[in-house]
């Protein structure tokens, strides 16, 4: 697929004036539904004027509002596809030394990082490096292994890291320990998991800072997230690929290890001495 509207926003939000930035944040928080409503409805929800919405759409590169809505409708159709539907799609045929799957995966990684700023990565690392915070990680049916993998690494370089597992009721029980200083990392790609949405909403109500790792179509958890990382997941397969999100996770692991270089090294030495 081409560049999504969410990726265009990530690329250009730094250059937007305040009103357009408010429109962008409103769209990301209600993606893509608010953009499928009328200009008047969009502007009322964002608290900006209708001309501001049209300037925002133009800044994203669309000629007019209908063209912008058509792009969102195409994304929504892709977002709602199930593995069964994708299994019936004709396979792509490509030539070259690498298979189409490998090429698509490498493209996903490149595109994910093309729309991911160094500033956002640094801001997330700063959240994870705070000594006053606890860090909680959770994922969906297919993405929880990334959460578990990331938690295992983070727990080596800093204390207070918890991977949330088991039934949804077990997650909710952990909310009692979560507050405004804490960080929740959530991995959620299509087809988005309602239990994760409910949990993220409860965590948001307690002031927890949420970092969402999702796909280019944006999980509804984005409305509660302080940081949203849209990774490319589409590949020539009935199943989405989490490879790009795994590379993002490893990038953050490396960034946090460097940020906590002295304390992390001391912690690793102590761990080794306990073995």
Any chance you could write out the topology, listing elements then pairs?
Blueprint: H1 5-12, H2 18-29, H3 39-46, H4 50-59, H5 65-79, H6 83-87, H7 100-114, H8 118-129, E1 135-139, H9 144-157, E2 161-163, H10 168-174, E3 183-187, H11 194-205, E4 209-215, E5 227-231, H12 243-259, H13 261-274
Parallel strand pairs: 1-2, 1-3, 3-4, 4-5
Describe, in plain words, how this protein is organized in 3D:
- The structure is a single chain.
- The protein has 275 residues and is an alpha/beta fold.
- The protein has 2 domains: 5-80, Arc Repressor Mutant, subunit A; 111-274, 3-Layer(aba) Sandwich (Rossmann fold), CATH 3.40.50.
- Helices cover 54% and strands 9% of the residues.
- It contains 13 helices and 5 strands.
- It has helices at 5-12, 18-29, 39-46, 50-59, 65-79, 83-87, 100-114, 118-129, 144-157, 168-174, 194-205, 243-259, 261-274, and strands at residues 135-139, 161-163, 183-187, 209-215, 227-231.
- The chain has a 5-stranded parallel sheet, sandwiched between helices.
- Helix 9 links the parallel strand 1 and strand 2.
- Helix 8 (118-129) packs across helix 12 (243-259) and helix 9 (144-157) packs parallel to helix 12.
- The longest helix is centred in the last third of the chain and has 17 residues, at 243-259.
- The chain starts with a helix and ends with a helix.
- The mean pLDDT is 91.
């Amino acid at each position: 697929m081409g560049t999504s509207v969410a990726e265009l926003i990530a690329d250009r939000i730094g250059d937007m004036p305040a009103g357009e930035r408010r429109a962008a944040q409103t769209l990301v928080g209600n993606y893509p539904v608010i953009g499928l409503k009328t200009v008047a409805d969009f502007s009322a929800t964002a608290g900006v004027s209708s001309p501001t919405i049209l300037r925002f759409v133009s800044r994203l590169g669309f000629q007019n509002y209908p063209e912008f809505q058509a792009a969102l409708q195409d994304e929504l159709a892709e977002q709602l596809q199930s593995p069964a539907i994708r299994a019936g799609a004709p396979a792509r045929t490509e030539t070259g030394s690498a298979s189409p799957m490998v090429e698509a995966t490498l493209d996903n990684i490149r595109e994910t990082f093309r729309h991911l700023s160094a500033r956002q990565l640094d801001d997330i690392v700063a959240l994870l490096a705070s000594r006053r915070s606890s860090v909680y990680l959770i994922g969906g049916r297919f993405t929880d292994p990334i959460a578990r993998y990331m938690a295992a690494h983070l727990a080596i370089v800093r204390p207070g890291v918890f991977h949330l597992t088991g039934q949804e009721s077990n997650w909710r029980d952990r909310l009692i320990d979560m507050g405004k200083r804490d960080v929740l990392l959530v991995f959620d790609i299509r087809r988005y998991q309602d239990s994760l949405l409910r949990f993220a909403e409860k965590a948001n109500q307690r002031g927890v800072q949420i970092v969402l790792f999702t796909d280019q179509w944006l999980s509804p958890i984005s409305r509660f997230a302080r940081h949203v990382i849209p990774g490319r997941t589409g590949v020539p397969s009935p199943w989405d690929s989490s490879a790009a999100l795994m590379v993002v996770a490893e990038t953050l692991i490396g960034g946090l290890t460097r940020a906590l270089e002295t304390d992390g090294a001391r912690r690793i030495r102590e761990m080794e001495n306990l073995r």
